Amino acid sequence: MGEWLRWLGEHLWVVFGVIAVALAAIEVLTLDLVFIMLAAGALAGALAAGITGNAVIAIAASVVVALGMLAAVRPIALRHLKQVPNTKIGVQALVGRKGVVLERVDAHGGRVKIGGETWSARAYDDTSVIEPGQTVDVASIDGATAYVYESEGPWPIGS
């Protein structure tokens, strides 16, 4: 038993290294971002043990780094992981885009080109009449009909 403890004392960096690898493997299975922070602490303990050879310094380094990672890094990492990208898909991706009037658009119908595709369109405001060649903004999409309103300002044609 004494021989075993002496070996552990001389190779403490290996013990901390094995603990770091084991904790990292557990993190892969749990994905909690807890065990990877503890693994970072164990890695710091391995470095401290390898440099100083002192068990007290290695354990202190391990605890300080693990607690620091849990307190400072984990909340930031979780916040970044939980952010939902604001990605619109399908026809909702067309809302807010520019288009060009191909056929006169009013409350009853018309045609516009949006993103390279031709859409049936209606004026968002029932009193508006938008002539061919004018640039419009897409207010909403209902089925295959784009509700549009005239853009304010010069915009590139063919959006």
TrEMBL record:
The chain crosses the membrane at residues 12-40, 46-73. Gene3D superfamilies: Nucleic acid-binding proteins (2.40.50.140). Pfam families: NfeD. Keywords: Membrane, Transmembrane, Transmembrane helix. It is found in: Membrane. It is a multi-pass membrane protein. Residues 92-148 form the NfeD-like C-terminal domain. Its main location: membrane. This is NfeD family protein. It comes from Tenggerimyces flavus. The lineage of its organism: Bacteria, Bacillati, Actinomycetota, Actinomycetes, Propionibacteriales.
